[in-house]
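We now fix the convention by which a protein and its fold are recorded. Here is one such record, which you should read through line by line:

>
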Amino acid sequence: MVCPYSQAVQRSPRMQRSTPRIPSFEQSLNQTGLAQRQPIERNAPLARLYEDALHYEPGTAISSTGALIARSGAKTGRSPRDKRVAEEASTVDDVWWGPVNKKLSEESFAVNAQTALDYLNTRDRLYVFDGFAGWDTRYRIKVRV
């Protein structure tokens, strides 16, 4: 199984591979397997995100500086040692494998992807953000989260 998310990555012109196109929003939703019964907020303005957080998430507030305060649960951080990258054709030669970039089999990726999809299908609302990874315009890639 090829990781579907790797197909949507645009690569730097310096890389010797062709640059795949990022699918349209509707195409990417059809590829995910989302039930699509819940509303999906796409690129919602900041004010809308604040309003929704204050309305739907218990314990949220706005600080004196305007920052949104929210509880993220028992695990409040991400450990760099928990990072996994699916080992498949598009990553095997381009990733520096080691203690930070640990290999994840395609089978394990498929199980984790299905678990995440099952969870998303239980949510009342979903949010999608289209943006970039990387600051330098010569090397940044488009991402959809």
User: Anything to note?
Assistant: The longest strand covers residues 130-133. The beta strands are 40-42, 61-62, 68-69, 84-86, 102-104, 126-128, 130-133, 141-144. The first helix runs from residue 25 to 32.
